Automatic annotation (TrEMBL):
This is Uncharacterized protein. The lineage of its organism: Bacteria, Bacillati, Actinomycetota, Actinomycetes, Kitasatosporales. It comes from Streptomyces aureus. Residues 27-46 are annotated as: Disordered.
């Protein structure tokens, strides 16, 4: 029986026209499924369903989600993260069993980012109060200086590089920063997986930052994200914010960074729930 499936051009390009047509015809697509985003049951015979292709280094897994939770898309993840997600879905602590929705494809290289190997992006989630409304936020801070690729000067250009990507200098945290189009924050299976940025021309989004293991977010953070359907992403140079144990201390560190001209921000659409 035909399925109410959404197969994006990016997904079709990866799995091929023949496989996409089989899915749409109902040959390889499940009727009922657990949404890869909200983990509640779905039925591709009764409601719009997105095909979401997770691509690792050696493996690709085709998952299904309510169209209201996630659009059909290709998501680049690490092989370790992909295998862990499959084990989480199947409830199997060992290797995942073969599935018609999982198949090997050539690995795709993620475009080189401006974060050098010696620096790691730390991400902290928290709620930020702006104009009387709680907004879900992510605070990004590298563990060390970020230099421009090819630069030998040793200068920290993290904020400059982000502004070139479309982030906005934030003089105060009392206003919601502008939307950064083409970027999004990916939640899948109720956890934070990645911050996605536009890929090369004609390609889908790629991970600007992705969790080595999916990060837990609080129910209140996720509820606020679902309410606003967006996430505020703030970034500051290494040593500016630090790991703050409480949200009031995090807000104080953000305010101080903004006052010192050391904060950029952007609002990004939420992908998932």
């Amino acid at each position: 029986m035909p399925r109410m499936l959404d197969v994006s051009d990016d997904v079709r390009a990866e799995i091929g026209d023949a496989e996409a047509d089989r899915l749409l015809a109902g040959e390889n697509a499940p009727g009922t499924y657990d949404c890869t985003s909200c983990r509640t049951p779905g039925d591709s015979e009764q409601e719009r369903t997105s095909t979401v292709l997770f691509i690792g280094d050696e493996t690709a897994v085709l998952a299904f989600a309510h169209s209201t939770c996630l659009p059909s898309q290709v998501v680049q993840v690490s092989e370790e993260q992909l295998q862990g997600a499959v084990r989480s879905i199947t409830g199997d602590g060992g290797a995942p069993a073969p599935s018609p929705a999982a198949h090997s494809i050539p690995g795709q290289a993620v475009p080189e980012q401006f974060v050098p190997e010696q620096a790691v992006l730390g991400v902290t989630s928290g709620l930020v109060l702006i104009a009387g409304e709680l907004h879900p936020a992510l605070v990004v801070e590298p563990t060390g200086p970020i230099a421009r690729p090819g630069s030998t000067g040793g200068f920290d250009e993290f904020l400059t590089l982000l502004v070139e990507q479309g982030f906005t200098p934030t003089a105060q945290v009392g206003e919601v920063p502008p939307v950064l189009h083409g970027w999004s924050v990916l939640l899948a299976m109720g956890q934070l997986h990645a911050v996605l940025q536009p890929g090369t021309v004609g390609a889908g989004q790629v991970a600007w930052w992705q969790a080595h293991q999916p990060l837990h977010v609080t129910d209140s953070w996720r509820a606020a994200a679902n309410k606003t359907n967006s996430v505020l992403v703030f970034a500051a140079p290494a040593g500016t914010i630090g790991r703050q144990p409480r949200e009031d201390l995090l807000r104080g560190a953000l305010d101080k960074a903004a006052a010192n001209g050391l904060l950029v921000g952007a609002a990004m659409p939420l992908a998932g729930t």
